Amino acid sequence: MDKLINDFSFGLFIWQIVLFVGLILLLKKFAWKPILDAVNDREEGIKNALLSAENARKEMQNLQADNQRILQEARLERDNMLKEAREMKEKMVADAKNEAQVQGLKMIEQAKVAIEGEKNAAMAELKLQVSTLSLSIAERLLKDELSNKEAQTKLVEKLLGDVKLN
Q1: Contact of 145 with 155, CB cutoff 8 Å
Q2: Within-domain flag for 4
Q3: Range of the structural domain that residue 117 is part of
């Protein structure tokens, strides 16, 4: 420490201060402004980047909200479409049942008419066969009874008696 105090030179100290002040003035004139401008430009760039990031974040939130809204609307629309489809299906099934019921009733009515017609035709044929059989039996009986002269006379008298009574 003694050596430091002994070696101290006032002139050298002044020169060092002058050089230091000159260096600071040169730096201020030539280097300080560009360095501060660069720092300010960088600071401005960082602020702009932060603003852009904030705007992007807000825009993303808006887009997410829009996406949620659109998704909700799509779900509602899907639900409405499914509801309409179910209603249409139920209506079509009901219409088909009603149509089938109407067709069934028509077929039953047609079957009843056909059965009635077949029944009438069968009855007419049965009557025809009964009358044919009755005539055939009557013919045979008459032949048997008319073969005998005495039986013929008796039958004619009986028929004449029946006619007079009516």
Answers
A1: yes
A2: no
A3: 11-165
Quick check: is 6 in a domain?
A: no
* pLDDT of res. 41: 94
The yes-or-no verdict on residue 163 having pLDDT over 80 is no
Q: How many domains does the chain contain in total? A: 1
Instruction: Answer yes or no: are the C-beta atoms of 152 and 145 closer than 8 Å.
Output: yes
3 state DSSP class of 142: helix
R_g (Cα) of the chain, nearest Å: 65
* CB-based contact 146:152 (threshold 8 Å): yes
Give the pTM. 0.41
3 part of a folded domain: no
Q: Is the pLDDT of residue 115 over 80?
A: yes
Tens of pLDDT along 50-100? 999 999 999 999 999 999 999 999 999 999 999 999 999 999 999 999 999
For residue 53, what are the CA distances in angstroms to 66, 77, 131? 19, 35, 113
Q: To the nearest 10°, the Cα dihedral for 81, 85, 90, 94?
A: 130
Residues near 151 by Cβ (< 8 Å), separated by ≥ 6? 145
